[in-house]
Amino acid sequence: MWWITDIPVPATLSLYNERHKLMRRILSNRTVAFTAASLIAAAPLAACSNSETESTTDPTKVDASISEMSESASEGISEIESELSPEPSSTAAAASDVEVTVDKADGIKTGDTLTVEVTGLNPEAGYYAAVCAAQTPGGAPVPVCTGEMGDVESQAWLQNERGTATISGDGASSFSITANSTGEGVDCLTDDCVLKIFGDHSEGFKDVAEVPVTFAS
Length: 217
Prior knowledge:
By secondary structure, the protein is an alpha+beta fold. The protein has helices at about 1-5, 10-45, 50-55, 60-85, 90-95, and strands spanning about 100, 115-120, 125-135, 155-160, 175-180, 180-185, 185, 195-200, 205-215. The strands form 3 sheets. A 4-stranded antiparallel beta sheet has the order 4-3-8-9. Strands 1-2-5 form a 3-stranded antiparallel beta sheet, with no helix packed on it.
């Protein structure tokens, strides 16, 4: 699976920088939330600290202040939780709209050139395309596909910044790959295989679309 180890250095640095910014932001939010929570705890104590305070403090104002601080603390905590558990990518939501076609789906031979057209993609996302086993083994983190590690001829990366194929503004992509019937853990001469489109490393390797293919014996 070449896509795991074939991420360019600039991409790796970019991921590191984004993570660093996120951690700084989370620490800042935690400070805000903790401060607000501390004020909430202190407010009732201040309101009943002495008899003079009791006679001059309006309970309704104290309650309103506590409510405002509680809401602020809740917002801070909610923001932290959303940072730690980001919303799913739009790629998964659009998966049902993606269609893939290949000019030759039956009687394929190793070395054949397969021309693939895909529509309905998210231009801001990234995808991989390859001939893979129809069923991913249980527990496998990524699809099991044909070809050797680092083989950009039998697999394609659809991504507008660093990919081997681009995605147009309307979500279409066209590319060619060289057919290979075997790979680590898969043999399309005996196993059911598909031409699979799935999310890249930034999209969690989630299945997006596929079309069945067969190889000639």
